[in-house]
Amino acid sequence: MNSSAGSRVVVTGATGNVGTSVVRLLSEDPGVKSVRGLARRTPEWSPEKTEWSAVDLGSDQSNVAERFEGADAVIHLAWAFQPTHDPATTWRTNVLGGIRVFEAVAAARVPVLVHASSVGAYSPGPKDRPVDESWPTHGWPDAAYCREKAYLERALDVFERDHPEVRVVRMRPAFLFKWESASEQRRIFGGRFLPGPLVRPELLPFLPDVPGLRVQALHTDDAAEAYRLALHSDSARGAFNLAADPPLDAAVLADLLGSRPLRLPRTAARSAIAAAWGLRLLPASPHLFDAVLRLPLMDCARARAELDWAPRRTATEVLQEFLEGLQQGGGMQTEPMRGRKAG
């Protein structure tokens, strides 16, 4: 992307957790001339050099290509996590909407496409060693999130074959958190009945230790910096893993929270989640829980070497900030990110 003349970047899903960080960084980047944020509902928040367009990617009536006209790059972040009880709806928004974005990039002759994939696209893998970007991306088929992320990886394979003139970058980040995303993520995964202020270390004397529950995390702003760097690197193509150290497991979390890990069998944990999900008390599905237990740890050496990227915050610092956001009702002036202290 030619940053010397100032680039024009379109960001889909611009008002969510990742989108707000990406838009903010691009608005502060002297190499970026303008940012167009696409979202279903335009926000009050308006950073410098940014304009907004209301677009619903889940609707086949949206003319996405005209929103991309004249753009030097498109960053595709739009994603719907809910409703988990209606996978046809998330498929329409995430998969069909994603394919609609890819087709619009080609139709508008946009030279750069940066797509938000995920660790969730990976096939089950090891928890005792990291894997690089060559690990298979077939997802966990029982979880809609993983199934949809993996399907878009295959759609991008076809897109790259048919459109070699487009530089395609796939970001595969770990779980992303920041203070401002706390209220949104509480609603998405914990539900509106979980009051954020109750998530306090002193109320958690014991922490469930589920075998296989070992994951990676990353600050959303650190992920956004990788997106920004990829825009300005003409040689950056293909997939990049993004995560911070250390991997998070019961021992690390218990030390952070001042709790004691208590061994809990997988079946017991899953049964509790499945019961709450079945009663619609918990938005996060047991299928996603199954997937998380099987996600591999990621090696991020390629992003460090080729993008000169490194996270500024450790995973434990990220989690500490997120917990403070839960307690304080962290949020922003966008509809997905609105802050609330209680459910």
Give the uncertain stretches in residue-range form: none
How widely separated are the two ends?
44 Å
Average pLDDT reading:
91
Output the structural class: alpha/beta
Word description of this protein:
37% of the residues lie in helices and 19% in strands. The protein has helices at 17-27, 64-68, 87-107, 144-162, 182-190, 220-232, 250-257, 266-278, 286-294, 301-306, 315-328, and strands spanning 7-12, 32-39, 50-54, 73-76, 112-116, 130-131, 167-173, 175-177, 206-209, 215-219, 238-242, 244-248, 260-263, 297-298. It has a seven-stranded parallel sheet, with helices on both faces. Strand 1, helix 1 and strand 2 form a beta-alpha-beta unit. The longest helix has 21 residues, at 87-107. The N and C termini lie far apart (44 Å).
